[in-house]
Amino acid sequence: MTTTTQLEEIVRSQQPRELQNIQAVYRLDRKNYLKWFQLVRTVLKGKKKINYLMGTRSKPGDPRFEAWDEEDSMIMAWLWNSMTLEISNTCMFLATTKDIWDAIQQTYSKARDVAQVYEAKVKTIAAKQGSKTVTEYVNQLKALWQELDHYRVIKTKCPEDATVLKDFIEQDRVYYFLVGLNP
């Protein structure tokens, strides 16, 4: 019987050579999809493998199919290795990288989800400098604001409205920053 550690080692050994030395800073768990998504997309884009997430592939009759299939399998193994075992088990029997990507996205992507916007806003409002340096505090706020911007996509009909809205949001963020500073 194969143990969890042996299974993880098998998956790790199947990574594409150019992905083997890249450590997944964020292993996908139930709470960090957005950071994991950005990491995976950036790594695969940098390695010119993003097409595997998009589903661009050779057909079985194509002479390049075998090479595509091998690379797709290795990227699948790398994806599984970048997830907690609990999550990777939910997509272990999917056929392609694209299938895994779509399943994970459907399960964990919460873009425009009201609960995620609420949670991000609560964290932003609750952020205080406390024992952090001003730089650490600003970095914390920036990360929270980026997360909020991801979930809360605001569409405007004209460029002037977009500029006014952007200025309003930036001014609001300055106020939140100032409120959280130590006296």
Automatic annotation (TrEMBL):
<protein>
    <submittedName>
        <fullName>Uncharacterized protein</fullName>
    </submittedName>
</protein>
<dbReference type="Pfam" id="PF14223">
    <property type="entry name" value="Retrotran_gag_2"/>
</dbReference>
